């Protein structure tokens, strides 16, 4: 009798086949499949491996934000971004640095922070030698070279290089100061202002100069101070090409060329280029004389007036400006002052 021919069942095939080989083949298939991107965005033509990824991407074009925060009115295009945002309400910081034990809301922030310990700065500026820990810091820095200020205040139309600067600035219009000092109850627009302020109470100065060991409360002050050692003057006047260590000094200097006097006396309406000049002038009206001679106890409205008076006691020679009769102890200070008159002193008038 002819032998019976049987067809193997699906179950028997599965039993006979090595399950490990099935797993390995699945990995290969998935890997190969991930390279295939059959779903294309009709707006920007970007390709995606999965329809769900395309759907999520389309929200960048439509502006759709289906994921709503239950605590505030913010909405997000992706659920993962909502999860991160919720930590601003809960205070949760699940990512911890094993070096300094600092906590972070996002894993990406921890990765960037770790570079402060390793010294790794993988993001290099293409214009100058500066390098940065994060691509975000590099993008912000490059705007110094390009002049780009993409964030505009809708109230006063002032432009900013960083979104965080715009957010802080907007509080000058709203008057919002949600951060409170627990010691003196002073209010601040942002945590970035509150943290340095707290150091005035604690005396903490965490930023130290590696050259002279001088300590500072603010990192920005250390950066500015370091230019004394390096001689760097990165802020140049576009009119006379004079260079400055600080941007604030350049802004003040430019008023020599523009004639701008933004500080006005509320009593007599006289205008001043410097806030400090307005403060000194206001003492004419208030009769406040905070500068006291330690020898004869005579008081003066300004430090300059006191210095001039001290010559009576010391016999020291002063240098007088021929344009406004202001007096200086050092000739170099007079020469620097004379540049405000947009000239070089031809005669240095000394007197006793």
How many strand elements? 23
Regions with little confidence, pLDDT below 50 for 5+ residues: 1-32, 343-352
- The CATH architecture category of one domain equals 2-Layer Sandwich
Rounded radius of gyration (Å): 33 Å
The CATH homologous superfamily name of one domain equals Classic Zinc Finger
Task: Note the total helix count.
Answer: 13
Instruction: Give me the secondary-structure category.
Output: alpha+beta
User: What is the averaged pLDDT score?
Assistant: 82
Query: What is the makeup of the main sheet?
Result: 3 strands, antiparallel
Strand order of the largest sheet: 22-21-23
Folded structure, characterized:
One of its GO terms (cellular component) is nucleus. GO terms for molecular function: chromatin binding; DNA-binding transcription factor activity, RNA polymerase II-specific; RNA polymerase II cis-regulatory region sequence-specific DNA binding; zinc ion binding. This protein is α+β, with helices and mostly antiparallel strands and 352 residues long. Among the domains are: 61-92, Classic Zinc Finger (Double Stranded RNA Binding Domain, 2-Layer Sandwich), CATH 3.30.160.60; 151-232, Double Stranded RNA Binding Domain (2-Layer Sandwich), CATH 3.30.160.60; 235-288, Double Stranded RNA Binding Domain (2-Layer Sandwich), CATH 3.30.160.60; 293-351, Double Stranded RNA Binding Domain. The chain has 13 helices and 23 strands. Strands 22-21-23 form a three-stranded antiparallel beta sheet. Strands 1-2 form a two-stranded antiparallel ribbon. The protein has a two-stranded antiparallel sheet with strand order 3-4. The longest helix is centred in the N-terminal third of the chain and has 17 residues, at 19-35. 1% of the residues are buried.
